Structure formats: structure tokens, C-alpha cells
Amino acid sequence: MNEGAALTIRKLCKEYTRGKPVLRDIDLDISDQGITAIIGPSGTGKSTLIRCINRLVEPTSGEILFEGLDVVKLDRQQLRRARRHIGMVFQEYNLVERLTVMENLLCGRLGYVPPLKAWLRNYPQQDIARAFELLEVVGLSDFVNQRADSLSGGQRQRVGIARALMQEPKLLLADEPTSSLDPKTSVEIMSLIRDLCRSHNIPVMINMHDVELARRFADRIIGMSEGTVVYDGAPAGLTDEQLKTIYGGQDWLHA
Fold first, then answer.
1. pLDDT grade, residue 108 (50/70/90)?
2. Measured between alpha carbons, how far is residue 244 from residues 40, 96, 125, 254 in Å?
3. What's the Rg (C-alpha) of the chain?
4. pTM
5. Nearest to 45 by CA among 66, 16, 11
6. Could you give the residue ranges of the DSSP H alpha helices within the chain?
7. Are strands 171-175 and 86-89 parallel, antiparallel or unpaired?
């Protein structure tokens, strides 16, 4: 792994159907700080890339180096240990609807707690104290005992972010965390991710459809088209010409 990189990806390929690659020889070094946003049209492999990193999607070939290990080669037990340190925020929240906000947060500690203790909801006192702290930070301290299915979309995503941080991750992945939210709530959620990850020194990889949101919050933008990286640089360097390359030259820019 390169020094200063939280994650190194080499020659990563993914085919769902043989002979039809969704990712083609992706090479990336993800810094150990800041937000890296991945943009591109639907079907270009953004979500697949994010999900290959923690093997929610199995890569076809290539290397994903995290904390000195190739994630692609880990067995089930080793993968479980590696996933402790990779937080994930989902587009559709992935909360347990019938559980309370507090119980959903404590799910973030499942990788650390023996299965029987987790089943009995017997979490260490320090985990419960940390959950209360995080709920205060994300503005949900009044919702501790509310069921997840009673929350708004923005509130659910705040729970999802807090749950990911309960893992004490060394890397946070976010798979289109704002696409189900209105514009105002989207900005609030991105501000929350940026501020929390800065204060906890956690690098973030996030894929998103909203180019302006990426420009506003990301330190680095990776533009993908047809499974390859066609732009990798600062938000300020992302010109209309490059956006046309990423999105296929359609007239969408001035629509």
C-alpha cells in the first residue's frame, strides 16, 4: 500500500455476466483523510466499486489492500474482522425497522460483541455511552426509544451514519446516501458526514448522482464512465468538457 493511503485498489474488475465487465482494471489510491466522491451515469459501476471494497459484491479479479491485507483474498472470519473497520452508509438506510434508534446504533458493535451477548442485547456500558454521545451529535437524542420505522428519511440516514461511526471505522463508505432525500436534507446529511469524519479523522468514499453536491463537499472527485476512471482530481478542475466525457456528451449540462 502507498504511504498515506487508507485503501489501495489495483486492476479491480467485476463482471456480473461473463464477458461484460462492469468495472475494468480500476487503479486507485484513497487518501487516509478527506472525502472522495465518485460520480458518473447510472450503470457505470459506482455502486459496484463501493460494494467490492467490503465484498458486499465479490470482485472478479484484482487487489483491494486495506490495513495491509488484500480484502479479495480474505476468508469469512478474516473478512468479518476487516469489516469491523469499514463503516457503510446505505442509500435505503438498511435499518432494522422494528428496533429502536438506540438498538440500531448498537448493531454497529455486532462485529465486536460475542453473538450470544448481542442476541441478549447485553452490550458493554461504554458502547451504550458512546451511542448516547453520537445521538447527541447527530441531533437525535430525543429519539432514543423510537422505532426506526417512525422516523423521516433524513432522521433514518442520521441513524445510519451514527451506526457506522459506532464501528470506529478506519474508512467510511457511503452508497448514494442522499439520493432518497430532498435537496435541503441532502445538504444537511453531507454536512454531517463531512464534519463527523473530519473530527474523527475518517476518510470517506462516497458515490453520488448530484454533481453540485460532490463539488461542494468533496476534496477529490473520481469521474467514471463505462466502468473506467475518466477523471480524477480536484472539484475545481471538473470542467463542462470533462462532465460531457463522464456523462456521454449529452446535452444535459444546460437542460
1. confident
2. 10, 40, 53, 11
3. 18
4. 0.90
5. 16
6. 46-53, 76-83, 101-106, 115-119, 125-137, 153-166, 183-199, 211-217, 240-247
7. parallel
